[in-house]
């Protein structure tokens, strides 16, 4: 059973909001692409793991710390006297390993994912020990993009290729064993230790003044052009209240320190909807604080 679900990383959500409203530098664009691809691969892997029987505790997306070293785990599967550590890679194209160095399809050297996996395993082993568990750790690099190929001079048992995914799952399912309470306790402990990092320091620098205002289509991420809120790009139609509330949510997430007023939301929406409409929607969905010019809204 899935003990801890994965949600879309806030960093990715915020980057998507910003991408529509400002120009990204080449590096920012690259980073956005990397985290988008990474999440895509993780979601694909989560769906794949639904094929596991119920004799497992699955924890997705853990950020843990041992002795001031932070390490991230894409998926941890707790089994009887064993844990499986999965690092999901959504690499695409032909990669080459030569003399222990990894090259991407463009021939540029990459961080060796096996080294990252090893580091993660070492830290996890120590953390489990500290929590009073002595379990075998099986670590795997899961390559789940069907367009991936790796030219590697020797067989590397820690690597699972797209064509091996089914067999890997079958192998796991062939050794079922009921987990008792202590494993559930471990899952709970690890979930409690999960660190939530603020994504804000990692975002491209932006201010309310600098980003482009307006309402964005919920389907294709382009700007809506008039008050009908019908997207000229993809034809998508969204109900006014839902569209405004989505814009308010975007505003709150991007500018957590700014206050919600009729004026600020009117500006944020690029004047597409009148202040009267915005006031009505805010009053219905938020709590009004203060009077006259000092009035603003807070979340219910
Ligand atoms: Zn659209």
What can you see in these coordinates?
This protein is of the alpha/beta class and 300 residues long. It has 2 domains: 2-193, no CATH class; 207-299, no CATH class. Helices cover 36% and strands 22% of the residues. It has 8 helices and 12 strands. A 6-stranded mixed sheet has the order 1-2-3-4-8-10, with helices on both faces. A 4-stranded mixed sheet has the order 7-6-5-9, with no helix packed on it. Strands 11-12 form a two-stranded antiparallel ribbon. The longest helix has 24 residues, at 26-49. The two termini are 33 Å apart. The model has no long low-confidence stretch (mean pLDDT 95). Bound molecules: zinc ion. Residues 217, 219-220, 222, 231, 233-234, 236 line the site of zinc ion.
Describe the secondary structure blueprint for this structure:
Elements: E1 2-4, H1 10-21, H2 26-49, E2 57-66, E3 69-79, E4 82-89, E5 93-98, E6 101-103, E7 109-110, H3 113-130, E8 136-143, E9 148-151, E10 159-160, H4 165-173, H5 181-193, H6 240-254, H7 262-268, H8 275-285, E11 286-289, E12 296-299
Parallel strand pairs: 1-2, 4-8, 5-9, 8-10
Antiparallel strand pairs: 2-3, 3-4, 5-6, 6-7, 11-12
Helix pairs in contact: 1-2, 7-8
This protein binds zinc ion.
Zinc ion is lined by residues 217, 219-220, 222, 231, 233-234, 236.
Question: Could you write a compact summary of the structure shown?
Answer:
The chain has 300 residues and is an alpha/beta fold. The protein has two domains: 2-193, no CATH class; 207-299, no CATH class.
């Amino acid at each position: 059973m899935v003990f801890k679900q994965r949600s879309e990383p806030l960093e990715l959500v915020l980057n998507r909001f910003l991408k529509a409203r400002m120009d990204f530098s080449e590096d920012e664009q690259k980073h956005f692409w990397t985290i988008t691809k990474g999440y895509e691969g993780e979601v694909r892997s989560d769906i794949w793991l639904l094929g596991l029987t119920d004799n497992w505790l699955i924890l997705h997306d853990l950020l843990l710390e041992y002795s001031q070293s932070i390490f991230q785990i894409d998926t941890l599967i707790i089994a009887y006297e064993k844990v499986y550590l999965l690092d999901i890679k959504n690499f695409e194209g032909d990669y080459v390993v030569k003399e222990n160095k990894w090259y991407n399809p463009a021939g540029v050297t990459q961080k060796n994912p096996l080294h990252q996996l090893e580091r993660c395993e070492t830290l996890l082993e120590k953390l489990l020990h500290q929590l009073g568990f002595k379990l075998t750790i099986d670590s795997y690099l899961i390559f789940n993009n069907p367009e991936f190929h790796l030219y590697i001079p020797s067989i590397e048992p820690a690597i699972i290729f797209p064509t091996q995914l089914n067999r890997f799952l079958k192998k796991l399912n062939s050794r079922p064993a009921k987990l008792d309470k202590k494993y559930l306790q471990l899952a709970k402990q690890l979930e409690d230790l999960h660190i939530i990092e603020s994504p804000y320091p990692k975002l491209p620098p932006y201010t309310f003044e600098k980003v482009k205002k307006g309402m964005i289509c919920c389907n294709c991420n382009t700007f809506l052009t008039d008050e009908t809120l019908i997207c000229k790009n993809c034809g998508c139609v969204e109900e006014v209240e839902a569209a405004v509330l989505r814009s308010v949510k975007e505003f709150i997430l991007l500018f957590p320190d700014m206050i919600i007023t009729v004026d600020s939301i009117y500006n944020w929406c690029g004047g597409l909807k009148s202040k009267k409409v915005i006031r009505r929607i805010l009053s219905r969905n938020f709590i009004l604080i203060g009077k006259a010019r000092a009035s603003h809204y807070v979340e219910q």
